[in-house]
Amino acid sequence: MALVPSPTANEGPLFAEVDMGADASAPTIRATVVQAATIFYDTPATLDKAERLLAEAASYGSQLVVFPEAFIGGYPRGSNFGVTIGNRTAKGKEEFRKYHAAAIDVPGPEVDRLAAMAGKYKVYLVMGVIERDGYTLYCTVLFFDSQGHYLGKHRKIMPTALERIIWGFGDGSTIPVFDTPIGKIGAAICWENRMPLLRTAMYAKGVEIYCAPTADSRDVWQASMTHIALEGGCFVLSANQFCRRKDYPPPPEYVFSGTEEDLLPDSVVCAGGSVIISPSGAVLAGPNYDGEALISADLDLGEIVRAKFDFDVVGHYSRPEILSLVVKDHPMSPVSFTSASGKAESSNK
């Protein structure tokens, strides 16, 4: 597994680091973003791969490890699930059945295993998954602490384009920011990072380590990540998969609609671009477009205070008498049941 190199006195894999003037009053933590591909339709094998990567990152001193969007369950790049307006094909429905089978329940045995992995390797873990809730799927991020506890989840509130035919929509009840000994950690997934009101809600919750699992490997993604770091005065950790055509099942089992005829097994279908950016907008590690990698940096949390001195978007740079935001952070249920006693019962899990 490749890492971004930087000179050190020790042998072995190296880390990109930036001297940000650390002092004893501001802790420094080591963070890693994982750039690697799912083993598609094989969740047990993907969990095994996740553990190997987590163990490797931990062996280099990482305290926080962030995996890409949909790492467990898979990002169905290139698939249209047989959907056109007014029609769904039998093959597309079967593809969804297999995709649904590869997703995980939250809570569930796979969540228990991820929690045990975080505890075993003593790392905070941020993991992109496809969550199965009954017959609906969600693109979700799970959070675990270094003691092996599941902390909670964020469901993507707005899937992009054709993602909306396979994933449900999260609500305001899963936009958490967790206050941990290594900083306040939250996440937004892929293009919901471009939603200014969602970002504002996270800033208001005090996010310091802003995780951005994604499937976007374009150069313009880097501009968004830099802007968020500067806007929020926070560290931004963006993790993307690096995938080749051979990381997906071969045709006709799996087809990249519109491009399949141009692809060879080694053709790159997602080039990565994972990156770590400081609150001042400095690129600490990445972006990496070369292959699967562990991309790491040391984060001086004192840099957050220095950045907020210039610009605190929900503090001294806000004008609440002019501009304000209301966040509905309770679960939204399609059905409520009222018992004879008058107490409402929600159908949500």
Overview of the structural elements:
- The structure is a single chain.
- The chain is α/β, with parallel strands linked by helices and 349 residues long.
- 21% of the residues lie in helices and 26% in strands.
- It contains six helices and 19 strands.
- It has a seven-stranded mixed beta sheet with strand order 1-17-2-3-6-7-8. Strands 9-10-11-12-15-16 form a six-stranded mixed beta sheet, covered by helices on one side. A two-stranded antiparallel ribbon has the order 4-5.
- Strand 6 and strand 7 form a beta hairpin.
- Helix 1 packs parallel to helix 3.
Short summary of the structure?
With 349 residues, the chain is of the alpha/beta class.
SSE map:
Blueprint: E1 2-3, E2 28-35, H1 43-59, E3 64-66, E4 83-84, E5 87-88, H2 90-102, H3 109-121, E6 124-133, E7 136-144, E8 150-155, E9 177-180, E10 183-187, H4 196-204, E11 209-211, H5 219-232, E12 235-238, E13 242-244, E14 268-271, E15 274-277, E16 283-288, E17 293-300, H6 302-310, E18 336-338, E19 344-346
Parallel strand pairs: 1-17, 2-3, 3-6, 10-11, 11-12
Antiparallel strand pairs: 2-17, 4-5, 6-7, 7-8, 9-10, 12-15, 13-14, 15-16, 18-19
Helix pairs in contact: 1-3
Catalytic activity: 3-cyano-L-alanine + 2 H2O = L-aspartate + NH4(+)
Active site: 69
Pfam families: CN_hydrolase (PF00795)
Low-confidence stretches: 5-22
Shape verdict? globular
Fraction of residues in helix? 10-25%
Strand ordering within the main sheet:
1-17-2-3-6-7-8
N to C succession of SSEs: EEHEEEHHEEEEEHEHEEEEEEHEE
Separate helix tally? 6
What is the makeup of the main sheet?
7 strands, mixed
End-to-end separation in angstroms reads 39 Å
Structural class: alpha/beta
Q: What Rg do the Cα atoms give?
A: 20 Å
Mean pLDDT: 91
